[in-house]
Amino acid sequence: MTERGALPMLLAQFQLDKNPFYLVYRDYSESYKGFYHYHQGIELLLIHRGRGHAVLNQKMYHLEAGSLLCLQPFQLHRVHFEASEDSPYERTILKFEPTVLVAALRMFPAANRFFEYLWKGNLTNQVVSTGAAEAYIMQIISHFKSKNLTLTDAEYYEAATMMTIQVLDCIRSLWREQAQTDSAAARPERHSEKIMQWIEANYTTPFDLDKLAKELHLSKHHVSHLFSSETGSSITDYLMSRRIRQACWLLNTESLPIEQVGIQVGIANFSYFCRLFKKITGYTPLQYRTLSFTIPR
């Protein structure tokens, strides 16, 4: 993403305040262009077909049929698939506002502990392989869909809550089974992950590709090429998304002048900061500050 490009909105707007459950059932794409963004609630992304990856928390996760990606609220990420007619990208997505499950899960201590961990914990891994459990998860979701409930139906929230808790309980079992295997199967760190870690430590200062390349013992061209080939996006794309993500947090939690917010995230040119912020989020910094988003750091 550069300023000249058509930048999508960083904060995906599906308004969980109006409907705390958001379900996309077996969505199908023969072309797919992901972008860096984050959501208000927890997202569970189950892959049925296709091969790709997710970029989040300065890590890359391989995704394929049977993979289930668990995303925490307001977690900056990008999902990338090389989808085509011969190799489509098919997925089911469940997003939900976690606070609506708090009361219901209190009576299930083990499930509640996992839910709190998934919601607020420091996740070392965010992808599990569903294997045979994929069919069971889809059976739970299909049963909910078959009721054809709408927001105005009295049973809607009860049914959606029960469906989500059942899916979470299945994920809890998968998480427990795969924890030992994941900890034992450490893989070498990718170049793109090292680049994202460097950006995390330096995004508040002017970007210096020469310095980044020197620290990684690579040429400038090779650094840019490696990041693009491994993530499907440019370094600038990732850097600007990370800066604006932090700017959103500062606008919601600090009383700093807007010009100072831009400086603190590494964009000292005030007019450029305002233009870039609006292009990515759809709001001016001042408009965004007045909104009721609550974004954790």
Automatic annotation (TrEMBL):
Residue span(s) of domain HTH araC/xylS-type: 193-291
Protein name as catalogued: AraC family transcriptional regulator
PROSITE patterns: HTH_ARAC_FAMILY_1, HTH_ARAC_FAMILY_2
GO molecular function: DNA-binding transcription factor activity; sequence-specific DNA binding
One Pfam family here: AraC_binding
Top-rank taxon, per record: Bacteria
Keywords, sorted A to Z: DNA-binding, Transcription, Transcription regulation
